[in-house]
């Protein structure tokens, strides 16, 4: 793993920092000794994991890939990190991302863009480095964060699995906030069994996060334990027609058909495939960008360069403290983050609040209702993850804003509804299929364990 990690850091810019090899090896040897003595702490004991740069690790620079926090050393571990470490898992490095989680391509980082392995196309964002780390086998699994698709999209572009749990299943304590009502810590790996075990360790209530789900986590059987059950209980899989958007490429539409057939074979011949309608999905993307920007502008107001974060040098031209704040924020935030703050400040302003912010909230309520109705009739929904293949960095840079925001059209509906969703790779046999080969399964409220099994 460590040799792969160095290559992923140097060639693909997947890591903002790698832990020193000697201390990782010491942890690995200690874990090996525990397994040999029959004293392993958990199934993830000894597994290496990477941590997205917006998830705090004690005594480690935790910067959300922003210049604003490039000098910030976290004083504590995020809950998910401390739980994984207590279970014996070994952090091995911090992964690159879009600044504060804002982006879909992994190109908006203070530390520069990252690329997926093989063809130097974009890795997807914002958890770009976590997806590359897993795809290059630099670690066994990686932590990411998903506000509107940031675990699922890079997982799809890099051909690995990306799991976004229900909102509130994994504590957000220690996650640097983007949009608090949507931010969800998620897991990426090439192995669903590892995702299930690591999720079991991370999930559960936390006194440091009042938005955590408090009901107990269902047990999460591994896939091989459930195969016979799956064949015995016929499942119903819904195809939500609103995801068949005009922007969906022909290849992606063809792949979606093949994926439905594949899922039917996996789940058994009794499985029924049912077309469904989730009408409010049509309004999900604009509603997401209104709500996410509103919350971002509020969350990011704390960065004034005074208590912590980047502080601009004092200039004799400054007459007020406000000018000092402005200079620090202008230097500290990248262009996309500044744009989101401006859009958020606008939608929260007196003139736009009712027409934009409240309307977006109403769309969110409608989505929750529509999805709950649908999950009375089906067990899962199957959709594409992205409307088209991963662009090259040049193609991504040429897209206008609306085009680039459209990349998230398949992932934001389940974020707004807080539903567990997962990106799964499929048909990785030719280059064109590889690009559109992943699909998304969405499960009903709090059905994380069912989705993983
Ligand atoms: N691409 C979306 C955005 O920029 C989603 C990002 C995320 O899930 N963090 O807001």
Automatic annotation (TrEMBL):
<comment type="subunit">
    <text>Subunit of the heterotrimeric GatCAB amidotransferase (AdT) complex, composed of A, B and C subunits.</text>
</comment>
<dbReference type="InterPro" id="IPR004412">
    <property type="entry name" value="GatA"/>
</dbReference>
<feature type="active site" description="Charge relay system">
    <location>
        <position position="126"/>
    </location>
</feature>
<protein>
    <recommendedName>
        <fullName>Glutamyl-tRNA(Gln) amidotransferase subunit A, mitochondrial</fullName>
        <ecNumber>6.3.5.7</ecNumber>
    </recommendedName>
</protein>
<dbReference type="InterPro" id="IPR036928">
    <property type="entry name" value="AS_sf"/>
</dbReference>
<dbReference type="GO" id="GO:0032543">
    <property type="term" value="P:mitochondrial translation"/>
</dbReference>
<dbReference type="GO" id="GO:0005739">
    <property type="term" value="C:mitochondrion"/>
</dbReference>
<dbReference type="GO" id="GO:0070681">
    <property type="term" value="P:glutaminyl-tRNAGln biosynthesis via transamidation"/>
</dbReference>
<keyword id="KW-0067">ATP-binding</keyword>
<feature type="domain" description="Amidase">
    <location>
        <begin position="1"/>
        <end position="452"/>
    </location>
</feature>
<keyword id="KW-0648">Protein biosynthesis</keyword>
<comment type="similarity">
    <text>Belongs to the amidase family. GatA subfamily.</text>
</comment>
<dbReference type="GO" id="GO:0005524">
    <property type="term" value="F:ATP binding"/>
</dbReference>
<feature type="active site" description="Acyl-ester intermediate">
    <location>
        <position position="150"/>
    </location>
</feature>
<keyword id="KW-0808">Transferase</keyword>
<dbReference type="Pfam" id="PF01425">
    <property type="entry name" value="Amidase"/>
</dbReference>
<keyword id="KW-0547">Nucleotide-binding</keyword>
<dbReference type="InterPro" id="IPR023631">
    <property type="entry name" value="Amidase_dom"/>
</dbReference>
<dbReference type="GO" id="GO:0030956">
    <property type="term" value="C:glutamyl-tRNA(Gln) amidotransferase complex"/>
</dbReference>
<dbReference type="GO" id="GO:0050567">
    <property type="term" value="F:glutaminyl-tRNA synthase (glutamine-hydrolyzing) activity"/>
</dbReference>
<feature type="active site" description="Charge relay system">
    <location>
        <position position="52"/>
    </location>
</feature>
<dbReference type="InterPro" id="IPR000120">
    <property type="entry name" value="Amidase"/>
</dbReference>
<keyword id="KW-0496">Mitochondrion</keyword>
<keyword id="KW-0436">Ligase</keyword>
<comment type="function">
    <text>Allows the formation of correctly charged Gln-tRNA(Gln) through the transamidation of misacylated Glu-tRNA(Gln) in the mitochondria. The reaction takes place in the presence of glutamine and ATP through an activated gamma-phospho-Glu-tRNA(Gln).</text>
</comment>
<dbReference type="GO" id="GO:0016740">
    <property type="term" value="F:transferase activity"/>
</dbReference>
């Amino acid at each position: 793993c460590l040799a792969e990690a160095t290559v992923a850091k140097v060639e693909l810019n997947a890591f903002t920092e790698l832990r020193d090899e000697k201390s990782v090896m010491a942890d690995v040897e200690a874990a090996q000794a525990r397994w040999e003595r029959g004293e392993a702490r958990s199934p993830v004991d000894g597994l290496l994991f990477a941590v997205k740069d917006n998830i705090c690790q004690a005594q480690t620079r935790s910067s959300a890939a922003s210049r604003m926090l490039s000098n910030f050393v976290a004083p504590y571990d995020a809950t998910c990190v401390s739980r994984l470490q207590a279970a014996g898992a070994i952090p091995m490095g911090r992964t690159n991302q879009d600044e504060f989680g804002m982006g879909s391509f992994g190109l908006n980082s203070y530390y520069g863009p990252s690329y997926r392995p093989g063809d130097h196309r974009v890795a997807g964002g914002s958890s770009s480095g976590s997806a590359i780390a897993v795809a290059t086998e630099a670690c066994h699994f990686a932590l990411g964060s998903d506000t509107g698709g940031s675990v699922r999209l890079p997982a799809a572009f890099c051909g690995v699995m990306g799991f976004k749990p229900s909102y509130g299943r994994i504590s957000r304590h220690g996650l640097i906030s983007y949009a608090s009502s949507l931010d969800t810590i998620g897991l990426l790996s090439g192995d669903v069994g590892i995702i299930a075990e690591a999720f079991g360790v991370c999930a559960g209530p936390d006194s440091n996060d009042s938005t955590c789900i408090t009901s107990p986590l269902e047990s999460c059987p591994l896939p091989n334990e459930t195969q016979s059950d799956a064949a015995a209980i016929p499942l119903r899989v819904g195809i939500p027609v609103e995801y068949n958007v005009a922007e969906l490429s022909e290849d992606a539409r063809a792949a979606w058909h093949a994926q439905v057939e594949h899922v039917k074979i996996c789940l058994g011949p009794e499985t029924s495939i049912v077309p469904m309608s989730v009408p409010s999905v049509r309004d999900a993307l604009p509603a997401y960008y209104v709500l996410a920007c509103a919350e971002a502008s509020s969350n990011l107001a704390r960065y004034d360069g005074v208590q912590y974060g980047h502080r601009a040098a004092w200039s004799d031209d400054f007459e007020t403290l406000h000018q000092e704040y402005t200079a620090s924020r202008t230097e500290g935030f990248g262009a996309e983050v500044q744009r989101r703050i401006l859009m958020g400040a606008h939608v929260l302003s007196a003139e736009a609040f009712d027409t934009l912010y409240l309307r977006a909230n109403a769309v969110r309520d409608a989505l929750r209702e529509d999805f709950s109705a649908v999950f009375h009739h089906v067990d899962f929904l199957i959709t594409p993850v992205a409307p088209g293949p991963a662009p090259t960095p040049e193609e991504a840079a040429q897209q206008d804003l609306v085009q680039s925001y459209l990349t998230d059209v398949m992932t934001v509906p389940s974020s707004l509804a807080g539903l567990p969703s997962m990106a799964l790779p499929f048909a990785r046999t030719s280059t064109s299929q590889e690009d559109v080969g992943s699909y998304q399964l969405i499960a009903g409220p709090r059905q994380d364990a069912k989705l993983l099994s």
